[in-house]
Amino acid sequence: MQTEARVGVVMEGGQRAISSGHGSIATVDGATRSKGQHQQHRYQAQIGTVSQLLSGGIAGAFSKTCTAPLARLTILFQVQGMHSDVETLKKASIWREASRIAREEGFRAFWKGNLVTIAHRLPYSSVNFYAYEQYKKILHTVPGLEKYQNNASAEISMHFVCGGLAGVTAATATYPLDLVRTRLAAQTNAIYYRGIQHALRTIIMDEGHLGLYKGLGATLLTVGPSIALSFSVYEALRSYWQSKRPHDSTVAVSLACGSLSGIASSTGTFPLDLVRRRKQLEGAGGRARVYKTGLVGTFRHIVQNEGFRGLYRGILPEYYKVVPGVGICFMTYEMLKMLLADISANL
């Protein structure tokens, strides 16, 4: 989730550059722009949007694939407290769990559930970007807000609100794939779900259509504060860095600040992410329900049975995933954006 926030910043900047280059109507001595020029600008803007959508989606999918082993370890640690005794929890460690996966499930098992992750990431990025643009258009039409259009603080606030709404929209639209990904990744030796389609059918048969949205409330509560922390920490760090070292590479500054903001966001929202993962696994594989109360009751149950540290079970592999994940995502996005820009320029 932190990675998507970073990509969102870059995509927004690219779209703003496109809009500034093609959004204004050039006039020479009062003459209006010709129809052919207008169509050409529209075509170039569409190419720019498509290239950003492709770059962001592919970068996110590639980043998720590279960090899939750490993502699966995070999920396995997050759900350990549901059906494990105290002694088992005390013995848990990253190396011991990684060794168990390699020994019992094979090396390929580190990427278990990654196909559905990619299937989820591509539409998620597209919906997120499209919704962001639509929410911006809606807010710009709200009476009384037009006087703040040239105000920098107001623009940042508007982008913050639109980004949060877009994240909630994208998370809701693609949530069943996120749930399936969690359940596939959480499987160890006992295989209950044999793939994406089988998992979707089985969940509907066992738990009804609403079963595809288990844990949605906790997910939406995670998306908002996660993006809030990501954007605020990222912008604050980047502004401070550039004020002290204005000649440093923009890519390097964005990479470093993005990684630090990802760590801050993960720390602040990890308990909510842990709860949503466990809610997603309620009743999976025919198991009895563990948490029979709402969100607050689930938090209370975890603290009572596992202590406060239980809310941060799996935080270390999450940290290990954030830094390389953001770096790979930025690198892939920038490379693809330049490549697609060259291709579109030659069309």
From TrEMBL:
Q: Which keywords are on file for this protein?
A: Membrane, Repeat, Transmembrane, Transport
| Pfam families assigned to the protein according to its UniProt record, in alphabetical order | Mito_carr
Q: How does it sit in the membrane?
A: Multi-pass membrane protein
Q: Where in the cell is it found?
A: Membrane
Q: Name one GO cellular component term.
A: membrane
Enumerate the Solcar repeat regions by residue range. Answer: 47-138, 154-240, 249-339
Please tell me the species this chain comes from. Answer: Trapa incisa
GO-annotated biological processes = transmembrane transport
Q: Output this protein's name.
A: Mitochondrial substrate carrier family protein B
Q: Which family does it belong to?
A: Belongs to the mitochondrial carrier (TC 2.A.29) family.
For this protein, the record's SUPFAM superfamilies field holds:
Mitochondrial carrier
